Amino acid sequence: QVQLVESGGGLVKPGGSLRLSCAASGFNFSDFYMSWIRQAPGKGLEWVSYISNSGSSVYYADSVKGRFTISRDNAENSLYMQMDSLRAEDTAVYYCARETYSSGYPRLDYWGQGTLVTVSS
Amino acid sequence: EIVLSQSPGTLSLSPGERATLSCRASQSVSSSFLAWYQQKPGQSPRLLIYGASSRATGIPDRFSGSGSGTDFTLTISRLEPEDFAVYSCQQYTRSSTWTFGQGTKVEI
Hints:
Chain A is mainly β.
């Protein structure tokens, strides 16, 4: 079955860096666009970034543009998020999610369990 | 940028009752691009509805979605104990990004 497992979260000081990973299994990873979505404590969901199946197209939310870099390794079935210049407001649980576009209806049909990033001095 | 506003913020109901959740967009949204998610405490979101009215795989038929333009609705016909959760609407934009509503909590 489809599985997405995030890792790499932790405590980091403001201005620091962190690299998140998402290991995918149970589907042909290279066929699917992937996204990162985050959720600050007690808050709603915020889309952060997406990457096309080949990696040739990437998009970012304005809140992270210029600081975060999404990438993927289709040979390793893995998605990544390099997070630099971290701020307190980046504190959140970060989820990776698979995008599906069948029948012309885009949706995020599978989500990982999330990894917590805490930015604090 | 299209903003999704959900109401009410919290819905207090009992098992067996009907729940009606609203998602209003600041501009017209294609029905094809509107989805609903359920999230329980400590869990990741789960896709319920896509294309405004299509149920995702394994979702019980007591969940239904409707609407068009700027007004969309998620209805739970008869609440089961496991349905008490937070529900978020989401839209996919033409610039290939996603936006979410702030969520509606359905509580006992």
